[in-house]
Every structure is written in structure tokens, then in C-alpha cells.
Amino acid sequence: MYINRIRKAIAAQRITQEELCRRVGCSRDAIVDGISADTACKLEFMLGDDLFAGIDIHVSESEMSKARSKMEAGFCSAEAKAWAQKFPVAELRRLNRIPAQCSNKDGSLVKALLKFFNVATIEGWKTYYANIQDSVNPQAYSAWLRLGELQVSRPAAEIAIEKEAILENMKFLRRNALGLRNALRKAAISSISDCDVQVVQVPAFLTAPAPLSASYWVGKRPVIQIPAGPMTDVRLLQGLFHQLYHIMYGKRSLCLQLGLQLSQQPSAGIAGTAGGSANSISGDTLKCSAAEQFAERHMLTEAEECEIICCGHFAEKRCIDYFAGLFHVRPSIIVDRLQQQKKLSSRTLLNSYKVAV
Question: Does pLDDT of 287 surpass 70?
């Protein structure tokens, strides 16, 4: 039976039925309750041309031929070509992720991009990366995320998330952040990886600003993705702690943290921050607001922040140094928090505390 073929194919790729439906861009019923020629062609495109070889799926060969021709014509449509043009094609070619000879004239570029994303249709791509459709450049962001996904192996067994272990490692990073200096990134990645949360680093594309961070699940494995290039120490910790909240307390969904807006949806989230504020585009922003508060609280508590402000000398270097040593936090975190509270100018000389890591 064709259902068994599909089950074996997705088991080999270690993807779930729910993920398959999102990648194909159809409902589960469209696969289980009598498969159509169109759906069968989409499944063949994603899972292999020989998926239904030698078995009867109750669809005639003429129907399959028409569906394949329709699908090929779709690759050459004006809509598909316009969609493909917005991707960082040159950089994907340089990385050997799509063939160098594929062209947008004959639809081969569209096919190559769909294969790269392991989706069957543009609708499947829109469904799988639903929440980044409202961002400035969903094509570039989705390609950045996909490059991270390809670095992660899918585990066969469930990975248990030990919240207490994660929280303890966050405390370790907080207590030792001051002494780690430029080794902060390496120590943070190692510490989080010890909690069975994989951290991948992917260079951002030139065609879109670098995201602060992202989190998602590859099969049953939680993943945090950050840009490979240098960022300030405070942004690194903020991004990592933000995503750890989503992994511990959120749904198994995508959260992309940008620098301009904040949004979260049940199936796949997109998030961003600007001075700690939240600005909803669509969906429920409460989880991302909570994640921001969680990240801030674990870098500098409200009581510590109040003590710094009440001292009255927080604009002085000696004050920042004193409280950094007293609270065992990086001085950049104190400066950043004071800027969020409008106590310090964004152009203060104290920005020199923000170290690239």
C-alpha cells in the first residue's frame, strides 16, 4: 500500500507526518483519504521519483502525466520566477547548495530552490516558514535558517529537555561572564550544547541584516542558530537566553529574532527586539515578550538594576566597573540595560564596554 511507502520514506528522512504535510503544502487527509494525482506528484518530487514504483495508488498514468506537466509548468510561471529571484542565488551557488547552471528562464532555478528547502511547492515553503512571510526579506531569512538545519542530524530518539540543567548553565554563564572576556561565545556554545541543545553558527547573507538568533526543532532535536560573524557580548547572551526560553517553555516551533520587530505564531514564530520593546505583526507576542523578560532577568535582575540606578553615578566608568564586579556581570550588560531605560545615551562613550565576541 502506498501509505507504507510514504511511512518508510519519511522514516528514512526522520521527519514526522505533520512536517511532511507542511513541506508538501497539503492536509493529512489529502494523503490518507485517497491520494490525488497532484498530491502524488508533490510527494514524488520531495521523497523520490520511485516512491510509488510498482504499486497501485488508484491514479491512472494519464492523470499522473497531466499532473507532472502541470507541475513543470508551475515552475516556469511568472509567480514562481519572481519568487526565485528574491533569494541570495549567487551565494547559494557559491556554497554549492544549488547547481551553478540552473536558470530562472526554464524553471530549473525554482526546482533547485525547492529541492534545497526539501519542500514540494512554493506553498509548502510558505507554510513551513509561515511566520517569516511578514519580514522584510523572507527568502533570505529562510535560506539562512535552512543552511543551519542542514548542519543538524535528526535524532532517532526523543531528546529530553532538562530545564534545571539549562537554568544552572545559564547561571554559570552569568557568574563567569565577566572573566570569560572574548572566550564568551565558545563557553556559551559549549555550555548550552552540554544540555543537548545544539548551537549552529551560519554567516548572514549580504542581502539581509543578520538576525540576532533563531530556535527551531529538527525532528526531535532542539536547535539554536546564531550568525557566525562577530556580535556584541550582550547581544550574544540576549539572543541565546531568549531562545532557551522558547525551547524550555514554548511550543516546538520556529522563532527568528530580528532587530526590528517581534512576532510569534503557534506554528512557526518570528521575533525581534528593539530596545527591549515588543511590536506585534501577527499572532501572539506574549511568548516572545516573556522570552525577552526572561533573558533580561537572567543577565541582570530588576533589583540589581535598581541598585545601579539609585547610586546616581551610573554614567561614570568607575560605577560600571564597580557593579560589574559586585554582580559578576559583563559591564556591557549594565550599559545596555541603562540605555534601554533611557538613563544613558545610545552614543555614550561607555559603549566601548560592548566587546565583539
Answer: yes
